[in-house]
Every structure is written in structure tokens, then in C-alpha cells.
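Researcher: Let's walk through a ligand-bound prediction step by step. First, I give you the protein sequence. Second, the SMILES string for nicotinamide-adenine-dinucleotide. Third, you return the three-dimensional complex as C-alpha cells. Ready?
Model: Ready.
Researcher: Here are steps one and two:
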Amino acid sequence: MKPLVNKIVCIGAGYVGGPTMAVIADRCPDIDVTVLDLNEARIAAWNSEELPIYEPGLAAVVSRARGRNLRFVGQPEGAAHVAAADAVFISVNTPTKTEGEGAGKASDLRYVESCAHFIAAHATGHTIVIEKSTMPVRAANRIKSILASARPGVTFDILSNPEFLAEGTAIRDLEQPDRVLIGGERPEAIQALAAVYTRWVPAARVLSTGLWSAELSKLVANAFLAQRVSSINSISALCEVTGADVEEVAEVVGTDSRIGPKFLRASVGFGGSCFQKDLLSLIYISESYGLTEVAAYWQQVVDLNQWQKRRFADLIAAPIADDAGSLRGRRIAILGFAFKKDTNDVRETPAIDVCRRLLARGASLIVHDYKVTAEAVSAELGARGVEFALSPEEALKDVAAVAVLTEWPAYATLDWGRLSARLKPRTVVFDGRNILDAAAVRRAGLFLRCIGKGAPHDR
Ligand SMILES: NC(=O)c1ccc[n+]([C@@H]2O[C@H](COP(=O)([O-])OP(=O)(O)OC[C@H]3O[C@@H](n4cnc5c(N)ncnc54)[C@H](O)[C@@H]3O)[C@@H](O)[C@H]2O)c1
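Model: Step three, the predicted complex:
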């Protein structure tokens, strides 16, 4: 049997499922694409003009395909679409487990498993089930065993097709991916999915591997990316005490073609829903195979990131705390809350840990972000001691310090000459992303502290 993919269902209309299916539908107008989610509010938003996630270019892609060959539906309506589908993507969340065996490290597969039960209950004929979610290696076995409960005569192929898009550049990453990875057992099934991607991705960029290699490759890719951030962040601390400049060091190091320039920007720390959870998953898997040294090696990448966030919060606190170390009565402007620019996603944003640490020491905060809502900020920080500003200007009112936590380009061009009128002379501005116009901040009579730049730069 040579499967063909004409009807696709994707379970999970999140940051991955929504944009990925929108691009598939956009590039393949003859393929019928249904995205289903049990979160009805999210589905309603996908069907409105106010999409549930912010991603540059997404609205245009959705508006071209929605109502033509792309639809977003709730779970009850989704069952019939699963029955008719040739291929069903599972693109639900796989967060770190919070209870039970492996709590705090292992990936929680309950959402994936519930999708597998849903597919087993509704699929007919032959269906290709595709892991789009990031899974622990060998997770396909769990899906297979659930699918085995389907009615007699209903058959499946299982593929692992992990997603490598980055939030903020998701549409570009989907339209021009470095590679598409398809892991599987039966070449016919791999070919059927590859035939979808090669409609717009050069065939040489569609890689195929075994199932376990595909599952593991996604975890390893994120671990390597996170490791680069922790590596340069560790050097940022060394730069601050020695007077070296981390941007100069990164530039020199990155020109080595064996190393390359990407992901060498020192910052307040990495965030997002994936890096830490995927590292923890890799650590848990290594531990469960008795590879304690491997686990300890990757744990250090997580620990360094936690340390960098604490370090940055303490750097902000140092010049403004009272003699007892308290920040009571100190108001701090937080510029940027999203975990990176061009997204409204706040999952695991370093701003959460930095802000919580400052709040715990008694500070009050006034937070600004271009895409994150006041509700999303208070969901993370609570309402006590936290205000939300609608502009950077508004955030600077009566503050003892200013901290930039997200690299929104608009912060790089702030007019510090004008803004300084709202601040006391020598107010400290902490640049957690090294994006501010340092000369302009200093010319305005303010004191600038940057990640990875030591005292010599302050003179
Ligand atoms: N966000 C990223 O940048 C990114 C990048 C690559 C891979 N991934 C991986 O992709 C997966 C999804 O991530 P995301 O960021 O899109 O998550 P998300 O939380 O934004 O979306 C997941 C969606 O799945 C829905 N869902 C959960 N269980 C369901 C069920 N049984 N039936 C129907 N819908 C269900 C949720 O309601 C939610 O809307 C994760 O495994 C993640 O690790 C994420």
C-alpha cells in the first residue's frame, strides 16, 4: 500500500500546530487541513481576526488559507475529520511533569496519550500518525500501544516529525527550514509525508532517519542551542570582572567557522517553553539509562541559566537596596517581559524569575512589553507590587532603576535624552540584552550596566 496524504488533521492549535498547519495549507492548496483543539477559546481566536498567538507574517498566511483548505475546529467536531484523515499530527504540549515518577524532569505525556486514545477511537482505514510534539526518545512505543486498541482492520504508521521552528521567526522557519526531519519505520510512510514538504522545501533538506534518532535529535538540537547560551553567559560573568567585553569575545569566537556566530549573544538567560523542558527531559532519559555523567553534564546548562537570572536580579538590586538588603519602597521599571522579541509568549521567560526575585526582596515593579498583555504578566507575578505600563515612557515614572529584559528593537532606539527627564540623574539602567544605545544612555546622565561588560566601560 502506498499512502497518499490528501487530508490532514493536527491535534493541538498552539504555537506549533497553528503556524505549521497554516503554512502547509498555504503551500498545498489541494490538501485539506483541519486543526483541532480542546481549548474552545483558542479555536474561536484562530477563527477570528485576533489570532491567539503573535508571530510576524502569521496573519497573512492564515487569511490566505482559512476558509479555503484550512479550518480550526473544537474537539467534538474534530472526530469526523480524524476518521477521514490520511495523516494526523499530534502537536500538543509536552510539559515537564509536576507529579509522579520523574516529576520535575520527565516530559508529561498525558496530552499526547489522550490524543492517541482519540485517534484510536475515531480513525478508519489506514492513518499515518505523526509526532510533531517534542517527545522523549522511544515515546512512539507508547503511542503504538495505545493505537493497538483501535477497531480491527484500522491500521497505522507512526512517524516522528519534530518541529524546529523558533518563535518570533516561525513563518520564515517553516517556509525556509534548515531541514525537515522525518523518522519512521516504513519508507512508504516517510515518503508520503516527505511528498507534502517537498512541495516547497528542497528535497535535499528533507532528512529521514529511524524513529528513535528523530525523537532524540530534537532534544539534542535544543540542548546544543541552550548550551551555547549558557556557555556565553558563563563567559559574560568573567568579562564583567576582568573588564573584557562579551560582545567582542563572542564576535571573535564566532568567526571561527567551526564554531559559527549564532546563539552567542550573552543575555539575562534563555527562556521559552522548550529549552529547559527539553534539557530536563534529556537529563531524565540519561539518568534512567544509568548515564549519570551525561545527565550531570546537561544539568549544568540548566543550572548556569538559573544562576544567570539570579545574578542579573542581584545586579539590579545591589545599587538600590537599603543597608539591610531590602528593596522596600524601590520601584523598578521592567522593559520587556516576553522571553524574546517578536512573540507574546511568556512561558519560562527569564523575566519571571528576575521579577519574582526583585518582588521577594520588597521591590515594586512597573512592567512594559509590546505584545505581552497585563493579564499575562499578572498571571505569572500576581497583582501585588506589579503595575503595567502601556509605553516605555510611562514605565519610567518614579523608578529607582530600569531593567531591559527583552530585546524588542524599539527599546534600542529609545530617546534617552528625552526620557532622562523622568529619571533621577545617575539612575542605573540595566541592559539584560545588550541592545541599548550605550552612548545615548550615558550622554543622558544615566549609569549603564550591561551583561558581560565590566567596570572599565562605565568610566
Ligand atoms: N513553541 C515552540 O517554539 C516549539 C518549537 C518546537 C517544538 N515545540 C513542541 O511542540 C509541542 C507543542 O508546543 P506548543 O508551543 O505549540 O504548545 P501549546 O501549549 O501552545 O499548544 C498545545 C495545544 O494543544 C492543546 N491540547 C492539549 N491536549 C489536547 C488534546 N488532547 N486534544 C486537543 N488539543 C489538545 C492545548 O489546548 C493547546 O492549545 C510541544 O511538544 C513543544 O515542545 C514547540
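Researcher: And what stands out?
Model: The pocket of nicotinamide-adenine-dinucleotide is lined by residues 11-17, 36-39, 42, 75, 91-94, 111, 114-115, 133-134, 163, 165, 167, 273-274 (CB under 6 Å). The chain has a mean pLDDT of 97.
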